[in-house]
Amino acid sequence: MTHEETVTLLSATLLKHRLIALAAAALLLAGCASQKGEPTTQFDFGPAMQSASQAQAQAAAPIGAIVVTDITGSSALENERMFYRLSYADALQARSYANSRWTANPLQMMTQRMKTRIAQAGAKVLSETDASNGVPILRIDVDEFIHNFSGAAQSEGQVALRASVFQGHVLVDQRSFARTTPAGTADAAGGARALAASTDAIAVDIVAWLGTLNLNLNRR
User: Fold this and answer.
1) Residue range 36-84, pLDDT digits in tens
2) Is 128 in a helix, a strand, or coil?
3) Where are the alpha helices (DSSP H) in the chain?
């Protein structure tokens, strides 16, 4: 092969590689554009219908007046992004759905849901500004709130938190709660339903726990 033929072959090879790279870049840009153009689906916890287990918890453990403070958690839960984790592939990486969002951040939704469930249990739910001296205060810190994929086609809504009750600046009790609910579908909608169900199940657990505490002075 002559020098001129070698140069021509190298030029053709470089041109081919450049065309392939340009085509790949075009496909990537097209994919990003179509993704951005897709409508965003928003999810919440749905209506707070009272289940049989919640009614039983109310009957077994009536609660008096209580302050429920805003639930706290990691900064990742302070926005509307919906996170999921592929535990079977990389348990250390949290990803977010591209075109699905919560209607409010999870901490706000959990706060409202917890207040609703405790009120359904017969308690008088007060804000910190409305509370009088001696009214117990419930504080909740979220450790986990995620749509977890334990397998390629198997996923769950995992919620874990710590609940503390104070009365007169004194810690009455603290307990950790965790619930895992299988998701019916391996997508954002399935994760939203599973996380809502896990949150509701923990609310039932917290109502039952509150009923066991010595807070009789606040039954009004």
Assistant:
1) 567 899 999 999 987 665 566 555 556 889 999 999 999 999 999 999 9
2) coil
3) 3-37, 52-60, 106-120, 188-212
